[in-house]
Amino acid sequence: MRSEKMLAPNAEVLMADGSRKTLSEFWRSKPLALIFLRHFG
Amino acid sequence: MRRDKSKLEQAGIQVVLVGLGTPAEALEFSRQFSVPFPIIADPGKDLYRTYGLKRANFMQLASPAILLKGLKGMREGYLPGRPQGDVLQMPGTFVIDREGRILHSHFAQNAADHLSVDAIVAAIAKSAT
């Protein structure tokens, strides 16, 4: 039996190159490891 | 993570990083550290809040274990740059399948706590069974 998994929050995001995407554009193409950093540098 | 890029690619996993700075700071970070992954700029911490990531307390940043890990990284050539953004913000990793389901959540317990590449790959592999 497959357990129910929580859905990832979708959001429009700002990329480093200034473009905008939605998170779902990433995971729909391939499984995604979304890694939140502490800070740059 | 940069060293394990091919392992992630072979497993069919894409990596996207999220950072606290502006797009310009993200680009500079990407250039300075040769980051091979796309970076989301989240200067307002909106995405951090949406995913439930919290700020650290002192011990989560400065315990002896963390300082030792930092020294080890420096010995391997990973020198700290000038931190940009909220230095108290704690990191985390979310492994998400193609239907948008969270397969694995990792909320870092301290500044040196990161989900391994093997754990990321395993989360995807487990979902396929």
Quote the distance from N terminus to C terminus of chain B: 25 Å
Low-confidence segments of chain B, given as residue ranges, are: none
Shape of chain B: globular
Q: What portion of residues of chain B belong to β-strands?
A: 15-25%
Element order of chain B: H for helix, E for strand:
HEHEHHHEEH
Largest interface, by Cβ-Cβ below 8 angstroms: which chains and how many residues each? A-B, 30 and 58 residues
H and E order of chain A: EEHE
Chain-averaged pLDDT of chain A = 89
Alpha plus pi helix count of chain A: 1
Characterize the structure shown.
Chain A is α+β, with helices and mostly antiparallel strands. In chain A, 17% of the residues lie in helices and 29% in strands. Chain A has one helix at 23-29; strands spanning 12-15, 20-22, 32-36. In chain A, strands 1-2 form a two-stranded antiparallel sheet. The longest helix of chain A has 7 residues, at 23-29. The mean pLDDT of chain A is 89. With 129 residues, chain B is of the alpha+beta class. Chain B contains six helices and four strands; from the N terminus they run H-E-H-E-H-H-H-E-E-H. Chain B has helices at 5-10, 23-32, 46-50, 58-62, 64-75, 117-127; strands spanning 14-19, 39-41, 92-96, 102-107. Chain B has a two-stranded parallel sheet. Chain B has a two-stranded antiparallel sheet with strand order 3-4. Chain B starts with a helix and ends with a helix. The mean pLDDT of chain B is 86. The interface between A and B is large, with 30 and 58 residues. Strand 3 (32-36) of chain A pairs parallel with strand 1 (14-19) of chain B, so a sheet runs across the interface.
Write a compact overview of the structure shown.
Chain A has one helix at residues 23-29, and strands spanning 12-15, 20-22, 32-36. Chain A is α+β, with helices and mostly antiparallel strands and 41 residues long. In chain A, a hairpin with a 4-residue loop joins strand 1 (12-15) and strand 2 (20-22).
